[in-house]
Design brief:
Oligomer: single chain
Structural class: mainly alpha
Helix content: over 70%
Number of strands: 5
Strand order of the largest sheet: 3-5-4
Radius of gyration: 71 Å
Distance between the termini: 189 Å
Keywords: Coiled coil
GO cellular component, one term: endosome
Number of helices: 5
Shape: rod-shaped
Order of helices and strands: EHEHHEHEEH
GO molecular function: SNARE binding
Length: about 240
């Protein structure tokens, strides 16, 4: 009796067209079956490992993608941070410049305030002096000074009259008031008119009359005749300067 032959074809062999079918003896069937089972188990284990490896690879890829996204976000954040640093640096420089400018303006303002204080102090002192001067002019001191000046003017007028009396023979007579004398004499001098009485003068309330000549003769001293007419314009000018 011939032994039975078993034909075993693997999955890969079925897919290959024209591949020879392997014939096995019945006695070798169990060994081949055991070997096939072990190969199948190894194949399944390798497939499981493959699936596990694929999952690990996928997870690693996902992690790498996430890390890449995070890296991109970090780069963007870094760029934003650098931009903000630049903005902060520019702002800091502007603030420093503005601070220095404000400091200079404060110094200038303090100098202006000091100058204003000095000017105000000087102005207050000048105002005080002006008030003192006004009080002295309106008070007893001013009146006393005015009276003393009037007294000095009267003394000077008397001295001038005495000097004129020495230069020119005059006599004292009753005259007008001082204000009327000044007004009339000033109007006469300014208008250029001759006084009504060319032989009389009034000085400081005193009416001075020229002593007339009683007679003229051929032997009269010419110097005596020329003296009054020569000195009279000078006396008028002198009195006008005094008045």
């Amino acid at each position: 009796m011939e032994p039975k032959k078993v034909v075993i074809a693997s999955e890969g062999e079925e897919q290959i067209q024209g591949e020879k079918i392997k014939a096995l003896q019945w006695e070798d069937y169990e060994q081949e079956l055991a070997r096939l089972c072990s190969l199948t188990a190894a194949h399944n284990e390798s497939m499981q490992k493959k699936h596990l490896l694929e999952e690990k690879i996928q997870s690693i890829l996902r992690v790498e993608a996430e890390s890449l996204n995070l890296s991109n976000e970090l780069d963007e954040m870094r760029e934003t941070l650098e931009h903000r640093k630049l903005v902060m640096g520019n702002t800091s420089m502007k603030s420093k410049v503005l601070k220095e400018k404000v400091k200079k303006e404060e110094e200038q303002l303090s100098n202006d305030i000091r100058s204003l204080l000095v000017a105000g102090t000087a102005l207050s002192l000048a105002k005080k002096r002006l008030q003192d001067a006004n009080r002295s002019l309106t008070g007893e001191m001013g009146c006393g000074h005015l009276k003393s000046m009037q007294r000095l003017v009267r003394l000077r007028q008397q001295f001038m009259v005495s000097q004129i009396q020495l230069l020119y023979p005059v006599k004292v007579g009753a005259g007008l008031e001082i204000e009327q004398e000044l007004e009339s004499f000033t109007n006469i001098v300014r208008s250029g008119q001759k006084p009504l009485d060319q032989g009389s003068l009034t000085i400081a309330g005193l009416h001075l009359t020229v002593v007339p000549f009683t007679k003229k003769s051929f032997f009269t001293d010419k110097k005596e005749v020329q003296r009054p007419s020569h000195l009279l314009p000078a006396i008028y000018k002198f009195l006008f300067a005094i008045l």
